[in-house]
Amino acid sequence: MSVLVTGGCGYIGSHTCVELLNRNYDVVIVDNLSNSKRSVVDKIEEITHKNVKFYEDDVCDKDALRKIFNENKIDMVIHFAGFKAVGESVLNPMKYYRNNLVSTICLCEVMKEYNCKNLVFSSSATVYGTPRRVPIKETAHLSTTNPYGTTKLFIERILTDLYKSDNEWNIVLLRYFNPIGAHESGLIGEDPNGIPNNLMPYIVKVATHELNELSVFGNDYNTKDGTGVRDYIHVVDLAIGHVKAIEKINKSKGLFIYNLGTGKGYSVLEVLNTFMKVNNVDVKYKIVGRRSGDVASCYANPEKALKGLGFKTTKNLEEMCRDAYNFAIKNK
């Protein structure tokens, strides 16, 4: 079975390609390398000892997509490709709406032309906005606090309407919580361009002396230590969730929505202290004011994914911290 992975050179996409190849799926990657590197394809092949077909193209380019579908018998698509920096989306919303929405529409139109109607979409817990209660179920109220999150919510609605219009489509919407960590080989991991937006890559860059110190935004939340609490999931667990979604489509027809998280929240200081302990390093930090739009606590109710996908995370916070640092050291 052949799976097209859009954005397959990215952080989550690359780990998903590894898990697919390890389970004997044929993998085709399309990535414009706007926030990733071509060398990741070689590293995926080094880990799995299997070949990957790679196209350096933009998913907004329908002719490029048609070429891929003409040259390969694609059975399923996992759609990761898209801009993902929350802060940048606030500063440049049109860039995000244009790229993230248009790429998805182009992809679905070309998939329909080639009668490939099996799609797994990379959504996000950002569609829950400021949660009214935790843990968060898939039935929770949907709202967003930034343009990036809004593109994810819009795409979910586009795909839901697509399914309603044509029940031959099989679609799984996966709402991720906070992926961290890296492949245990240290060959692939999170390697953002510029200053990181997320906690773990920022901690790593301070630990490796690329940045001076970490800013902890707020220590007066109603949480165990006053810092924000999030659901951190190891990226390899997350990747396996996509394989489970492919398996779901193979045996069940319809549109499905699942949270992918651990169901447990960790505070910023818990993550920081665990990182320092397991890696035996110091990470300088300072407490600063809260960021606008941040919430005190956000973590998943993972029960639906367990029942519907047979998905359960296996890796703990210590492994997440150790693997993230291992990747950084090997790729510094």
Query: Structural class, from helix and strand content?
Result: alpha/beta
- Overall geometry comes to globular
Parts with pLDDT < 50 across at least 5 consecutive residues: none
- Provide the β-strand percentage band: 15-25%
Number of helices: 11
Q: How would you sum up this structure in a few lines?
A:
This protein is an alpha/beta fold and 332 residues long. It is built from eleven helices and 14 strands. It starts with a strand and ends with a helix.
Structure description:
By secondary structure, the protein is α/β, with parallel strands linked by helices. The protein has a domain of 211 residues: Rossmann fold, CATH 3.40.50. It is 41% helix and 17% strand. It is built from 11 helices and 14 strands. It has a 7-stranded parallel sheet, with helices on both faces. It has a 3-stranded mixed sheet with strand order 12-9-14. Strands 7-10 form a two-stranded parallel sheet. Helix 1 packs parallel to helix 2, helix 5 packs parallel to helix 6 and helix 7 crosses helix 11. The chain is globular, with a radius of gyration of 19 Å.
